[in-house]
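Q: What would this chain look like folded?
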Amino acid sequence: MDPDGIVLIDKPKDITSRKVVDNVMRVLKVKKAGHFGTLDSFATGLLCVGIGQGTKLLPFIKDNPKEYEALVGFDMSTDTDDLTGKPLQYYPEAEVDIAKVKEWIDSNKGWITQIPPDYCAQKQQGVPLYKLKRANEEAVPRPKQVMIEKIEILSFDKDWLKIKVECSRGTYIRSVARDMGSFLGGGGYLRELRRLKSDGFSVYEANTLEALERKVEQKEEVVIPLAKALSFPKARVIPNGALAIREGKPIQISWLIDDVLAEEGELVTVLSEDLKLLCIARVQRRGGIFGQIERGFF
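A: My prediction, written as structure tokens:
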């Protein structure tokens, strides 16, 4: 029986996120898997891969902040806003002005309107913009609201800057590099990008593809079980309750084994007595009912 849960991979450079998923499926011999957020081929770091019913977890963990470490170059601009793109203009006299960098950072905290790169997965009439651009067709990214929690300057030299960015899902770090460079009066593009945190997990918990294969051969546990992957309050139910939940019935207060500290409308992880994930429920107390099933895991 295929496992269900999440596998954390430290993605290497020069491989697509889809290829990483294919490798995970091959090593674990599973038929269903998918990643929770693409990393560009040149980027490295944390890639969360849902296995089996773990693919259903994304809507419930996607609001966790993301964290990246980025090396921004200011000596040119490219059509992809990273080092893989075609150079558009060179700035040989580029020089980092830390005072201006801090000014840009201070004015780009919180919710901001960000224009994605021309080469991105945003769709225009159902077609990803990057495909339209590669076909030399017109592609115009739509502005979007993103949250930038924090940008920390780690190091810098004449024409580059290393930063750590804490942000919401959907934030384009390539756009951060482009816009920062434009504010400084030159180019701005990513030379390196590494994802440190995503979906409530850290890259320091992740395995390389080589380590994953070795651990599987040695029969070590590499899949985070469904119940452990969620940070909601947890509640166990009696066996009759577990059977009824599998039939899709509302969760009765009388089924609960544990007292649950959860406000009305909050999400709760509901488990069987042997700690298997039954469902994610939304608390809606009334007439003996504790809550309604938001997503079942049967």
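DSSP finds seven helices and 19 strands in the chain.
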